[in-house]
Design goal:
Strand content: 25-35%
Oligomer: single chain
Order of helices and strands: EEEHEEHEHHHHEHEEEHHEE
Structural class: alpha/beta
Radius of gyration: 18 Å
Number of strands: 12
Largest sheet: 6 strands, mixed
Shape: globular
């Protein structure tokens, strides 16, 4: 089986404090995963490790078939798209929306390269695909939170990544904006040519049917991983959150409530 991500027996310590321990996780090609955990659980640390920004104290990491220690991580990162709320704050407010998208090809904040017709056409196509072509010609600062997230996803796709990480993509969105963004993400993930996607969230109701697998992280270790329908159960999540919860499934999405 071909794996996009392999993390084996990962241990990571910082300043004599253990942050990750016994992390074992494999993502096979063709799978889309949701990653769920409370604040401080270790999700961001795992993402930083996947991107090669930190190295395990112990264990091995391979991403896109490249084992760390045998590959130039700067080159590897070019094949990984990472969309996070922190990126929104770094984008110049006066940049045109299409410039924001095109800058993803060069992994730059701001556009400093000459734009080709091909790049411009690809940017417009991605914006259309994600339902934000109406933003062409506008400045980034005039866009809503949900529109900015769509632009950043389009930006990440400009470099044709093989792995796309959506880190709390729905953070700060109202219900309607959240559902609109999730609809675009679902359509993207369902495409045969879509990159492998990791959807990082605090909220199980955001986990779409296309995210067929889920990873639960608690206190720096893997609590559970596997098929979402099996992992996201009332019994399992009650133990995971250490409080009684009830999970109901509607249209292949899990919804959480407290009895």
């Amino acid at each position: 089986m071909e794996y996009i991500i392999e993390m084996n027996d990962i241990l990571w310590r910082r300043e004599n404090k253990t942050i990750l321990t016994e992390v074992n996780w494999q993502v096979a090609r063709g799978e889309h995963w949701a990653v769920l955990g409370l604040n401080g659980s270790g999700k961001t640390t795992i993402l930083n490790m996947i991107n090669g920004y930190i190295w395990p104290t112990k264990g091995t990491v391979s991403v896109l078939g490249k084992r760390f220690g045998t590959v130039d991580l700067r080159e590897l990162r070019k094949a990984i798209g990472w969309v996070s709320s922190s990126l929104q704050e770094r984008i110049p407010y006066n940049d045109k929306t299409e410039s924001v998208v095109i800058s993803g090809k060069h992994a730059s904040i701001g556009l400093y390269e000459k734009v080709s017709g091909e790049d411009e056409g690809r940017a417009y196509g991605l914006m259309t695909e994600l339902g934000c072509s109406h933003l062409i010609g506008r400045t980034y600062q005039t866009c809503s939170q949900g529109e900015k997230q769509k632009l950043l996803i389009a930006r990440a796709l400009m470099s044709e990544p093989k792995l796309l990480i959506l880190d709390e993509a729905c953070n700060g969105l109202d219900f309607l904006s959240r559902e609109a963004l999730l609809s675009s993400i679902g359509a993207l993930a369902a495409k045969p040519e879509a990159p492998t996607m990791l959807f990082v969230t605090h909220h199980i109701e955001e986990i779409l049917p296309v995210f067929t697998h889920s990873l639960l992280i608690r206190r720096g270790t893997v609590y559970a991983s596997g098929r979402s329908q099996e992992v996201l159960s009332s019994e399992g999540l009650s133990d995971f959150f250490e409080t009684p919860v009830h999970v109901s499934w509607q249209k292949e999405r899990a919804w959480l409530s407290i009895p």
